[in-house]
């Protein structure tokens, strides 16, 4: 019998390797297109693809490393590697966006926009880039839905965002070729810069929150509380605490049980509740503590 977790890791890794292969191809194509056309909008798209390549490499490594089981030095596993990689990626995005923005503003301030050539070649290469990106997004979507892998889902979201500067670059090339709107190229580059800065902020914030042990999404916490509240044999619960690390959610929960029942019965209730939480949130790591429910007449009631 195959291990579902191992199958999920293999699927996640396949999506990561596909991402690396596509981004490497796109970097090569766009580098050639930029050299042929001199279009800054393509340079912005090239920088984004180069960033994608780095992010994809980190994502693939993070999937492999995060899948390692807990050990003596990492009792809670290795999923924080995903957050460290994402934080580095966000800083790289920020720096790349500032560099492209500086060059775009310099072109807008110039008396005449730099000439752009080989527009048809640039359009063809950007169209190929869009087709490859759409194919990758489709595969990543399948893997993310099947495995629930947050790294793959985040990588997919980033590639969906990449379609915007790709279409923008095509528009800039067409506008330059047909109407001579040379400055459109720099304006499209600035729009891509704004997109990259926003993405850098979002990725950096999520990574920082996870590294600082921020709680899980409130909807997830409410969902776990609802499961515990209605679970048979549970008279109440308290100290529901969560934290995130990469794609994992660590959950600690104290449940209150009848103190007159046997240890075997108490264990069965806790184990059943834990399975129910894992069924609802497969990415969770759940620890349940069992306390005796107080009755009327007990000290302190």
Structural class: mainly alpha
Q: How many DSSP-defined strands?
A: 3
Distance between the termini: 51 Å
CATH-defined fold name of the largest domain = Alpha-lytic protease prodomain-like
| Largest sheet, spatial ordering of strands | 1-2-3
Helix content: 55-70%
**What is the approximate shape?**
elongated
Please tell me the total number of domains: 2
Helix and strand topology:
Layout: H1 4-37, H2 40-66, H3 80-109, H4 119-147, H5 150-179, H6 184-211, H7 218-229, E1 236-245, E2 248-257, H8 263-280, E3 284-292
Parallel strand pairs: 2-3
Antiparallel strand pairs: 1-2
Helix pairs in contact: 1-2, 1-4, 2-3, 2-5, 2-6, 3-6, 4-5, 5-6, 7-8
Structure, explained:
The chain folds into two domains: 4-211, Cation efflux protein transmembrane domain (Alpha-lytic protease prodomain-like, Up-down Bundle); 218-292, 2-Layer Sandwich (Alpha-Beta Plaits). Helix content is 69%, strand content 10%. The protein is built from eight helices and three strands, in the order αααααααββαβ. The protein has helices at residues 4-37, 40-66, 80-109, 119-147, 150-179, 184-211, 218-229, 263-280; strands at residues 236-245, 248-257, 284-292. Strands 1-2-3 form a three-stranded mixed beta sheet. Helix 2 (40-66) packs antiparallel against helix 5 (150-179). The model has no long low-confidence stretch (mean pLDDT 76).
């Amino acid at each position: 019998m195959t291990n579902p977790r191992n199958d999920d890791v293999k699927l996640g890794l396949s999506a990561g390797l596909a991402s690396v292969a596509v981004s490497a191809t796109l970097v090569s194509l766009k580098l050639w297109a930029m050299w042929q056309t001199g279009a800054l909008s393509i340079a912005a798209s090239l920088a984004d693809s180069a960033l994608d390549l780095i992010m994809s490499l980190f994502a693939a490594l993070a999937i492999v490393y995060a899948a390692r089981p807990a050990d003596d030095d990492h009792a809670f596993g290795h999923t924080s590697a995903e957050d460290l990689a994402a934080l580095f990626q966000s800083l790289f995005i920020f720096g790349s966006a500032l560099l492209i923005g500086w060059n775009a503003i310099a072109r807008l301030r110039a008396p005449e926009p730099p000439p752009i050539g080989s527009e048809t070649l640039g359009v063809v290469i950007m169209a190929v880039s869009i087709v490859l990106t759409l194919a990758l997004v489709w595969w990543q979507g399948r893997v993310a839905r099947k495995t629930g892998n947050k790294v793959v889902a985040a990588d997919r979201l980033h590639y969906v965002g990449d379609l915007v500067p790709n279409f923008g670059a095509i528009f800039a090339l067409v506008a330059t070729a047909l109407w001579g709107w040379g400055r459109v190229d720099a304006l499209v580059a600035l729009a891509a810069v704004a997109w990259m800065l926003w993405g850098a902020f979002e990725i950096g914030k999520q990574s920082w929150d996870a590294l600082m042990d921020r709680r899980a999404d409130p909807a997830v916490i409410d969902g776990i509380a609802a499961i515990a509240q209605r679970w048979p044999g549970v008279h109440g619960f308290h100290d529901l605490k969560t934290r995130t690390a990469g794609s994992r959610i660590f959950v600690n929960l104290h449940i209150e049980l009848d103190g007159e029942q046997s240890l075997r019965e108490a264990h069965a209730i806790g184990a059943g509740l834990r399975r129910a939480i894992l069924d609802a949130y497969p990415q969770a790591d759940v620890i349940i503590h069992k306390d005796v429910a107080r009755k009327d007449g007990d000290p302190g009631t």
